[in-house]
Amino acid sequence: MQLPLRNPNDHISIEMDTLNQMVDASLERGFTYFDSAYMYHLSKSETAIREALVNRHNRESLTLAAKMPVMILKT
Questions:
Q1: N or C: which end of the chain has fewer CB within 10 A?
Q2: SS3 letters for 43-67?
Q3: Rounded (5°) CA angle 31-37-40
């Protein structure tokens, strides 16, 4: 799922007010697992999730999964 954007043509213009509302609504409905990855939103999604979720809610009450990029370099 893509995070909400202020400008649909700018993948790093994450709309934080909307994201905060989405996170709050999810938690209120019992969701406790959130997933992110370094490469989402040109590496800005993890910062946005931290601000919306971890900085605003009890970290002990949720699970946040993050994936690291795996790149194979050919020489």
A1: C
A2: HCHHHHHHHHHHCCCCHHHCEEEEE
A3: 105
Contact 68, 39 (CB under 8 A): no
At residue 69, what is the residue type? P
List, in order, residues 6 or more apart from 13 with CB less than 8 Å away: 5, 6, 7
Query: Which neighbouring-strand residues pair with 65?
Result: 35
Q: Categorize the per-residue pLDDT at 59 as very low, low, confident or very high, splitting at 50, 70 and 90.
A: confident
User: Which is nearest to 51 in space by CA: 20, 18, 15?
Assistant: 20
- pLDDT tens-digit series, residues 20-49: 999 999 999 999 999 888 788 888 998 999
